Amino acid sequence: MPPPKDVVKIAIQMVGAIPQLIELQQTKPLASVLKDVCDAWSLPNAERYALQYADGRQTYITESVRHPPAHAGPAAAAPASSPAPLSLQNRRDIKNGSILRLTTSPDQEAERLYNGIQSKNVDVKTDSLKKLASLSQDVTFAQEFISRNGLKQIYSIVEEGNDTGEMLAHTLKAFTELMEHDFVSWENLSTVFIKKIVSYVNMNAVDASIQQLSLSILENMVPTSHLLFELVKKEVTLDRLLTHLQVTNAQLQLKAMALLIALLLTATDAERRDMMDYLRKKNIRQFIHKNIIHSSEPLGDEMAHYLYVLQSVSLNLCEQRMKTSMDPYSQEERDLLQSLRQTAFESESEAPAGNFSTERRRSLCAKEFRKLGFMNNSNPAEDLRRAPPGLLALDNMVYFSKNTPNAYSRFVLENSSREDKHECPFARSSIQLTLILCEILHVGEPCSETAQAFYPMFFGQDHFFEELFCICIQLVNKTWKEMRATQEDFDKVMQVVREQITRTLALKPTSLELFKTRVNALNYSEILKLRQTERLHQEETLAVPVLELREKLKPELLELIRQQRLLHLCEGTLFRKISSRRRQDKLWYCRLSPNHKVLHYGDVEEGVQSPPIESLPEKIPVADMKMLLMGKECPHTKEKSSGKQNKDVLELAFSIVHDVEEYCLNFIAPTRYEFCLWTDGLNVLLGKEMTSERMQTDLEVLLSMELKLRLLDLENISIPDSPPPVPKPPSNLNFCYDFSHAEQ
Fold first, then answer.
1. What's residue 73's pLDDT?
2. pLDDT for res 348
């Protein structure tokens, strides 16, 4: 007979004692459980002890989690700017077979370490700080330590000490872990403390681990208030961060990039523009392209995300011009517009212009603007009143005319000499192309918290957007000629150009030259071939007999997909912890047992790709899983609802509800692909249908392959929509062979 649901069988260890095997009643008060355990080992004062996991993070088992008491003082227990919601208890997470350890209670340990870090003995103080850095990851211990005004002692060690060795590294690590729980506001830090942290970043002769921790502290600090942002921006110069980016230590490089991104995201639009201009002058793009993207070390997920953000921030500098319509009364903007005409038709209008009347000159200008491809040639500024793309289109046209004057003149003069109906309108094409590029590159959209999709060629070129435009506007002219297009075909041509650009960018070319080569190779005839292949593939699968065959094949292929999903869960995935404040660098791993009965998970270190299942201490029996939640339904997305919720995080979030609804294992998938595979696999374990878009894609691919194999013998044979009629039965069956006569 199975044990009751609220009873779990566990082992409890203690140094120097024989382990106890007990049945833990979850309804029994934790104090009573501790007393029974202590009585079995004849230990007095049970209130001085606590249980914690023996493996993994060694978290304390708690009945309830309390906020730091009010008497802790403003420096110790000020309300956090975005307090993290806390679970009431974690004892319900204990599973059958868990191994716990009897240890000193959190309040006793906090008191001991609080005294230890004030010791005059350097060895005792260092050991206490090392232990503090380890235990501070536990929320219960952190509360006890903070309630004793422990952070004040941490501040003192940093502010008054001159040590830059092991002791300081443990101190900064402990401080980082304590602040991670969001019990204390970053705004309460003193200027002396902050400047001390800044000094470690600015020092040359200091241990790399201390600089990494200092950079991480400043990164956390910057987004919390504008005053802290201004202080850090003033004390840690961009030149200093660029120096850290040039080191060979990948972790130090990563933390420097993290602080740079935090500064850029927190800055105002004007400050961000100034910072990006300065970085451009320092050739940061070329450095990143050479020393980070093409370095011998593989690019990690975290660095890929920061490069994506840097690319997004840089492209978003175009947003203001993109959303600004042309002002026909602005002399500066009118001069830019006139420069387009003068560059293209300078030789034609230069000599006789002085002899023309005002009316004749206006007529000549209108004719030249019409040749340039403006719809409203008498007042071309009207064409640029549409925003987006606004003035960004004008900027691109001027850049093209000034930086590639030969290509510009060739484009305009070549088309102005064609018949009216076949000329490719330069201005109209430029305006529409600018809008297409803004949409493809997501100009003006907020940065995702998890995306890693950056274009390597972006960092290999200054003025990336303008240079990309120069390549693509010439592509428009080339495609226009290949399609023998007229003015009525304008939208069709731009649709083909969008497809050419999108398909080429999907190949992730490493340079603009490579992009130019590939996008020009993808000519109109190639696009037609691709479209025809896709259309034929779709048409051949729409015949009625083929649809019936598809339905018969589906169950077998769905089972194949289910097995693949479960196999992926058995291999496991590395997940990142993301708090409401920032992108985390903490990792945890989850995988399904080979017998598909237990989910194993636990924290892992950076660089661990596939930890063995034995090293993952936490478990959830599949039988205890009740429900799968996704997106906004997940508790960890509801916890962040007070801040600006990021759409991408919602699309990657899912949770497993187990035992009772209050207890969930929360996930944020690294990619949409992993999200689909995990949610499908968990639905299979729960006996439900797979619902992800990836399942539909995989099913279509498998069905397509299977149908092609089945229909190989019918190539070039038309399949009728209905089966041929079954002939009537014959009038007699005399043609049948009588086996009975043969046997006689």
1. 37
2. 52
93-113 residues labelled b (16+ CB within 10 A) or e (exposed): bbbeebebbbbebbbbbbbeb
Residue with the larger pLDDT of the pair 154 and 543:
154
| Residue with tokens 């299942």, as numbered in its chain | 613
Residue pointed to by tokens 């340990």 = 109
Q: What is the pLDDT of residues 595-642, one digit of tens each?
A: 999 999 988 887 777 888 888 888 889 988 889 999 888 887 776 544
pLDDT at residue number 162: 75
Mean pLDDT across 658-663: 66
The C-alpha atoms of residue 208 and residue 163 are separated, in whole angstroms, by 14
> Strand pairing of 583-592 and 573-578?
antiparallel
Contacts of 657 (CB under 8 A, 6+ apart): 625, 626, 627, 628, 629, 663, 664
Q: What is the reported pLDDT for 355?
A: 54
- Bridge partner residues of 53 (DSSP): 100
> What single DSSP character describes residue 665?
E
- Those residues with Cβ within 8 angstroms of residue 719's Cβ, 6 or more apart along the chain or in another chain: 543, 545, 546
- The closest of 198, 122, 131, 195 to 165, measured between CA atoms, is 122
Cis bond before residue 388 (omega within 30° of 0) = yes
Residues of the chain with pLDDT > 70, as a percent, come to: 88
Give Cα 241 distance to the centre of its chain. 23
Coil, strand or helix at 689 = coil
Those residues with Cβ within 8 angstroms of residue 117's Cβ, 6 or more apart along the chain or in another chain: 125, 128, 129, 132, 150, 153, 154, 157
Q: What are 518-552's pLDDT values in tens digits? A: 999 999 999 998 888 777 666 666 667 778 888 89
CB 247 within 8 A of CB 211: no
447 and 309 Cβ atoms separated by less than 8 Å? yes
- 228: tokens are 């802290």
Residue given tokens 């279509």 in the structure block: 700
